[in-house]
Amino acid sequence: xxxxxxxxxxxxxxxxxxxxxxxxxxxxxxxxxxxxxxxxxxxxxxxxxxxxxxxxxxxxxxxxxxxxxxxxxxxxxxxxxxxxxxxxxxxxxxxxxxxxxxxxxxxxxxxxxxxxxxxxxxxxxxxxxxxxxxxxxxxxxxxxxxxxxxxxxxxxxxxxxxxxxxxxxxxxxxxxxxxxxxxxxxxxxxxx
Length: 192
What we know:
Blueprint (H helix, E strand, L loop, with lengths): L4 E6 L6 E5 L5 E6 L8 E5 L7 E7 L8 E5 L5 E7 L9 E6 L2 E8 L2 H11 L8 H4 L3 E5 L5 E8 L4 E8 L6 H15 L4
Antiparallel strand pairs: 1-2, 1-12, 2-3, 4-5, 5-6, 6-7, 7-8, 8-9, 9-10, 10-11, 11-12
């Protein structure tokens, strides 16, 4: 993958859609989330033709605040997972990312006040349409020692959510970080 990666979340669509492109403009993956699912099961495709599956993201339980989402390769093996940190995530988004049962990264919101202000501003008639240009959330992916590996920035955009994932340190867990970021965006899209 050529970083930075750009995530485009279509807001004006019947079913939520997300496409990820790399620095060269090549599509890395595409997701069209299914509606009315009690237990989350997202299929991640290589592109919008949906001809090749990259992986599936499956929840371990029905609608739960602290559900664990496993990343399942096409051969059926799990190569990582992400889990929301329950009560710690009420005000500020916080997730644990692991691989083979071993903690790998923590994904956390850098400044939760930005998301709160964005939500308030979005509720103001007429002006709320410009909230995507005023407040920009930022998420950090780091290890337990605080070493930063990735940063996800929200970018200004109308009628879609645009995020950019920058890599700071090389790692052999790029795909796990990508799938974790993708799942976090689906879970947090209603919160700014």
